[in-house]
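A protein record pairs a chain with a discrete description of its three-dimensional fold. The following entry can be read in just this way:
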Amino acid sequence: MNSHLKTALELAGVGVPVLPLRAGKLPFGNCTQCANNTCGGRPTMKNAGTCGCPGVCHGWAAATTDTTTLTSPPWAGAWRQAQAVAYHPAGARLTVVDLDDADAITWAREGLPATRIVPTTRGEHWIYRGTMQSANAVRPGMDIKSSMAYARWLGPGTGTMTALPDAVRALGVKKPSPVRPVTVPLPAGGGGCRHRTPVYLERGIAMAEQRITEAAGGVHATVYRTFLAVLSAHGRCGCLTDAHAARLFAAAQAKGESARHCSDAWSNARTALGM
């Protein structure tokens, strides 16, 4: 067993979702179609589903604590090529403040409460207990990695981990994105849409609500994947309405998701499908 897989299994054993990284800090695909990165292996939502998988198979959404997945093909081979181990901070109920240079570190020391610190190649990772929406370039040389992001595992660090402060949450605050209308043009020729059968559409929305409601963990990933599946099945013919989206948002918010995260997840799913 190589050192990266050993580290990954140790982290998974204490509830930290992990994934292997190849050169360039990019993730491996963890499905058969993407095992050799035939789809590019990008960790962005825009590539979601290009391999035919029902959900996201790359990046943060692929991070797992399941040892069978970690040690089975195609990841069994990926670990032999891996250059690093990554983890999904929010999946471990953590937030990483990624400080890339001396100026960013100085600002953090002056403006943020002390917490656990992990040295990086160029700076430091400050690890806090609690989750939030990830955000890049919140200040010069500073990114926030928590939900819908992954961070390299560089060791346990030093210092006592403290609760995520409001000062960090404030850095990630931006004007909430409005919910985009779900209406799209009808297929060429009009009519003949199988989704216009009320029972078919209702069953799809009800199943999506149930999937979100019954999520035992990884709620961020479940919400995104569910939105992606609903839009993929029902979003191009005009039968999906704002009322349907509102039902899905309500289910997600009942599981603790914010309205802003729901809106961003919906927008990301639309972008992934080219809507």
